[in-house]
Amino acid sequence: MSATAHAHVDDHSNDDHGHHHHKETFVTKYIFSQDHKMISKQYLITGLIMGAIGIAMSILFRMQLAWPGESFPVFEALLGKWAPDGVMDADIYLALVTIHGTIMVFFVLTAGLSGTFSNLLIPLQIGARDMASGFLNMVSYWLFFLSSIIMLFSLFVEAGPAAAGWTVYPPLSALPMAQPGSGMGMTLWLVSMAIFIASSLLGSLNYIVTVINLRTKGMSMTRLPLTIWAFFVTAVIGVISFPVLLSAALLLIMDRSFGTSFFLSDIFIQGEVLHYQGGSPVLYEHLFWFLGHPEVYIVLLPALGITSEVMSTNARKPIFGYRAMIASIIAIAFLSTIVWGHHMFISGMNPFLGSVFTFTTLLIAIPSAVKAFNYITTLWKGNLQLNPGMLFSIGLVSTFISGGLTGIILGDSTLDINVHDTYFVVAHFHLVMGISALYGLFAGVYHWFPKMFYGRMMNKNLGYVHFWITAVCAYGVFFPMHFVGMAGVPRRYYQNTAFPMFDELTDVQILITMFAIIAAFAQLIFVYNFISSIFYGKKGPQNPWKSNTLEWTTPIEHIHGNWPGEIPHVHRWAYDYSKTREDGEYVIPGQDFVPQTVPMQENEEEMHH
Amino acid sequence: MTAFLIIAVLVLVAIAIWQMTKIFELSQIKSDNSEVATDKDNKYNGYLLFAFLIFIYGITIFSFWKYSKMLLPEAASEHGAEYDSLMLWSFVIIFIVQTLTQALLHYFGYKYRGEKGKKALFYADNDRLEFIWTIIPVVVLAGLILWGLYTWTNIMDVNDEDDPLIVELYAQQFNWTARYGGEDNVLGDANVRMIDIDRANVLGLDEADPNATDDIIVKELHLPVGRKVNFKMRSQDVLHSAYMPHFRAQMNCVPGMITEFSYTPIYTTEEMRQNPDVMEKVKRTNAIRAERAAKGEDNSDPWQFDYILLCNKICGKSHYNMQMKIIVETEEEYNKWIAEQQTFGKTMLASAQ
C-alpha cells in the first residue's frame, strides 16, 4: 500500500477513522502493521520488556557481588539448577553479566530507543505520510522480535547461555571446552545478533531514505528538528558499522562450526592441541569494536536528539547554537568511526596505533563539550516547564557530563593501562551511555506518550517520583563504583574474596547494590504509570507541551497517512519559542511559540541563519 | 560499617517516600488536574534540582572522604610516578569542569523554573561564546594528549637497554606460570604444540633449543628491585590479561602471539609493607578478617601485603581467582632464590629417568 495514495483522503469523522480504502483486521493493525506509529509502539514495548529482563539480571549479579556466596531463595527460584541451594554458580554469574550487557546495549538502547523514536518521529516531524517503505519497516521490527526471542530462548539451553562477556571475544567464545556457555548458548547468541543486525540495517536504510526524500515542502535540512538530525546521523553510522559486526559474527560462526582459523591460533586446552593456526583474536577485537564504538553513539545520539527537542520545548527557548549542535552531531559521528582502538590499548596491538587512537578519542571530547555547554545555555534565562520529560533531559545532561569526563582518563592510553577492564570502566560507560541513553528514552516516552497513545498523558506525579528516585540511585550506584575500579578491582569477577586487598571494598559493593535495588524497584513506578496511562491516562489537548514541531499538528487519533488532507508546509525552523517582534510582543500575540507551519510574519526576522 | 551504610540507604529511601507522599498531597490539593507541569510543580522540582546539586557534591565528598584510602597505594614502578601525576592532573581538571558545569546546569534549572507570564529570552546563537567553549577544551585536551602520548611512548618502548631481566608470563585457565631465561637471560623457543604433559614440559619448550635448557619455570614471580624487567606474555587457551595494579602495568595475553610490557620495580615487598598507607590498609583489612574469624567464617586468616598479578580479561569460570604472588626483593635475595630453582634441562632429565 503506497503511503502517498492517501494524500487526498480526508478524515471523514472521528468514529470511523482508519477505515480508508481497505478494512483493517486485527492482524494488519496490531501485529503485521506497516504503519510507523504502530511499529514504533511495538519497538517500545518489546524494548521495555527486554529492559525489564536486563535490569532484573543486573540485580541478581549485584546481589552476588555484595554478598558473595550467600544463599538467596530468589536465586534458586529464578536460576534453578544454576543456583544449587540458592548460591549462585560462577558460570551463570558470567552468563548474567553477558546477557545483561547484550540486552541493554542492543535490544533496549539500540532497538528500543532508536527503533521507537526514529519510527515515531521521522515521518511525523518531517511531514511524511509514513516511512519510505512500510513493508521493510515491518520486516525490520519482526526480525528484531525474532532475534529477541532467540536471545531469550538461549537462556534455557542446557549448558547455559553465552557467558564470554557481551563482547564475546574468542577464543573464549569459540571453544565450548573453555566455558559451557560457549556451546549452544553462544551459537544462539550469534544467530540472534546476526538477525538483529539485519533488522537494524533495514531500519536504518529506511530512516535515511525517508529523511532525505520525504520531507514536506519547506522542510530544508537546516529546518529539521534536532531529533531528526540525530536519528538520521545515527542511521548513517549504523549502516557503516553494523555490517562489520556481521562479518565478525560470521567469521566467528565459521571458526566455531567449520574449523576455520580466523581468530584462533596455537591453542592447547584440556590436554590437547587444537588444529587452529594463524588466526588472531586481535582481529576479532578490531572488527567488534569497529561497530562497538560507533554503537555507543548509536545509543547516545538519539537520546541527545530527544533531549534537544524536549529541553527546548520545555525551556520555551530555542535550542542554543542549532548549527553547532548539528555540526557536533556530525563530528561525533565521524570521529566515532575512528576511535575503536581505545578499547584495545593493551590488547597487544602496536603501541603506535594506540597513540593514534588516543588522539582521535580525546578529540571527541570537543564536540561533546560543545553539546553540553549548549544545553546549559539553553536553560539560561528560560521559562522552564519542569515536566517529567524535561527533568529526564536535564538528568541526561548531568550524567553525560559526569560520565563523559572520566572518558578523558580512559581515552588516554597511558591512564587506561591501570584502569582498563576495572570497575572504573563499568562506572564510566554506565553513566555516559547507559544511564544517559535511558534518561533519553524516558524523556522521549513522557514527552511523546500523548502522541503514541491517542492523547493520553502519563501521570506527572508518578513521573516526578520515578525521576527523583532514579536520579539519586543512578549516582548512588555509579559514583562510588569509580573508586572500586581505582582500587584495582577487575570487572567480571564472580566474587572478590580471593584477594584480601579487596576485602574492605565489600562495604562499597553493598552500598552500590542497595542503590541498584531501589533504582530497579523505582522502575516499577514507571511500568505502572505506563500501563495504566495507556488505558486510563488523562486526555490532554492536541499539543500538550505547546510545541512547534509538526507531529503536534496531526490529529490525536491515529490515521493512516498521519494528516487528514494535505501535508502541512513548513515555513520556519522548529525552535521559534518566545520569539518577539521589535515591539516586544510575541510573534503571535499571547502565544510564546510559533509552530513550523506558521508563515513568516511581517517585520519578522528569520533569526537563526 | 555495613549496618551504617544500610541505615544510610534506608534513610534515603524514607526521604524519598516522604517526598513522594508530599508531592501526592500537593497534587491533590490543587484543582487543576492536568498532567502538564504547573507553577507549583515547577517550583518544587526547581528546588529539588538545587537539592540534587547538593546531593551530587555530597556524594562526591562522601566518596572521597570514605573511599580514597582504599585506592591503590603509591606506584611501585619507575614509570608509575609519572602515571600517578598524569592521573592526578586529569582528575583535577575533571573535577573543576564537573563542579562548574553541574552547578550551572542545576542552578539554571532552579533559577529559571517556569512561572506563568514569565518571558523566556529568545537567544539562539552567539558565535563568540561557542568559539570560547570550543577552544578551551581544544587547548586543555591538547595538553593532556601531548603529555599522555609522551608518557605512553616511554612506557611502551620495550627495549633491551640497561640489561633487562627477561621473564615470560604464561597464562592458562586458571593459573599463571613464570619462566626466566636462566644464566643466559634468553628464553628458549616454545609453542603449545610442543607441550608434553607426561614429561612435564608444560609450557611447550623446544627441548632441542640450547637456550631452553637453563630456563627456569616457577609459580611465584620474583623480581630484583631496581632492575628493568621485560615481560613476554603468552597464553595457551583463551585471552587473559596480566594485571599488576601496584606497578601500573597491564597487558593482554593472546594465544598465537607474544605480547610485551616492561617496568622497573622500585620498592621491595618489604619496603612496601612499611609504607604507611599500606600498613593502614592491612590493619583495616585484618580488622575485618578478625571479625570474620570471630564469627567462624571462612577467608579470615590475617593478611600480609603482597604484590599480586591478577587476570583481568574474562577467561571462564575461575577467572575471579586466577592470580600469582609477586615478590620484589633485593638483588642478593633474588640471586639466592633463583639459584635454588631447578632448570628446565634438569626437569627433563628427571622426567626421563
Automatic annotation (TrEMBL), chain A:
Localization, UniProt: Membrane
Membrane topology, from the record: Multi-pass membrane protein
Biased composition (Basic and acidic residues): 7-18
Region of interest (Disordered), residue spans: 1-20
Molecular function per GO: cytochrome-c oxidase activity; heme binding
One BP term from GO: respiratory electron transport chain
Ranges where the Cytochrome oxidase subunit I profile domain occurs: 26-571
SUPFAM superfamilies: Cytochrome c oxidase subunit I-like
Transmembrane region(s): 43-63, 92-122, 143-169, 189-214, 226-254, 287-308, 320-340, 352-370, 391-411, 423-449, 461-488, 508-531
Listed GO CC annotations: membrane
InterPro entries associated with the record: Cyt_c_oxase-like_su1_dom, Cyt_c_oxase-like_su1_sf, Cyt_C_Oxase_1, Cyt_c_Oxase_su1_BS
Keywords linked to the UniProt accession: Electron transport, Heme, Iron, Membrane, Metal-binding, Respiratory chain, Transmembrane, Transmembrane helix, Transport
Similarity comment: family membership: Belongs to the heme-copper respiratory oxidase family.
Name of the protein in its database record: Cytochrome c oxidase subunit 1
Organism: Cellulophaga tyrosinoxydans
TrEMBL record, chain B:
Record's bilayer topology term: Multi-pass membrane protein
UniProt EC number: 7.1.1.9
Example of a GO cellular component annotation carried by this entry: membrane
Keyword Electron transport attached: yes
Keyword Transport tagged: yes
Residues annotated as transmembrane: 6-24, 44-67, 87-110, 131-150
Domain Cytochrome oxidase subunit II copper A binding: from-to ranges: 162-340
Location of the protein in the cell: Membrane
InterPro entries with a match to the protein in the record: CcO_II, CcO_II-like_C, Cupredoxin, Cyt_c_oxidase_su2_TM_dom, Cyt_c_oxidase_su2_TM_sf
Pfam families: COX2_TM (PF02790)
Entry protein name: cytochrome-c oxidase
